[in-house]
Design the sequence.
């Protein structure tokens, strides 16, 4: 059993853009196949630049704010209450297009 409190976890810059701040609640290898479980805050105008993972799927849920998620160059509205599953090999990018912070909780799962 592990008890993790969000505000006890140090904040750091996201690897795709240090201006996006994240807290990794569960690190890689703590649970089999889970690559991470984290919460990220995107200030207005900030983005996680376009990238791809061949070895994992990612699931993103917007807690608050709004923006856009692009998957294989197709744009989707990404707003509070929306969840998006990104499959391995899909090129994806997330941008806060709103006027307030966009908060996203997400996790990755390794694939065979």
Sequence:
């Amino acid at each position: 059993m592990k008890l993790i409190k969000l505000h006890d976890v140090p904040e750091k810059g996201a690897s795709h853009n240090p201006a996006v701040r994240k807290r990794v609640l569960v690190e890689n290898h703590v649970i089999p196949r889970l690559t991470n479980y984290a919460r990220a805050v995107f200030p207005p105008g900030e983005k996680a630049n376009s990238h791809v993972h061949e070895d994992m799927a990612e699931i993103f849920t917007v807690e608050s704010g709004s923006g856009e998620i692009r998957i294989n160059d197709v744009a989707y509205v990404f707003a509070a209450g929306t969840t998006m599953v990104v499959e391995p090999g899909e090129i994806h990018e997330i941008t806060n297009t709103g006027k307030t912070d966009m908060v996203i909780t997400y996790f990755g799962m390794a694939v065979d």
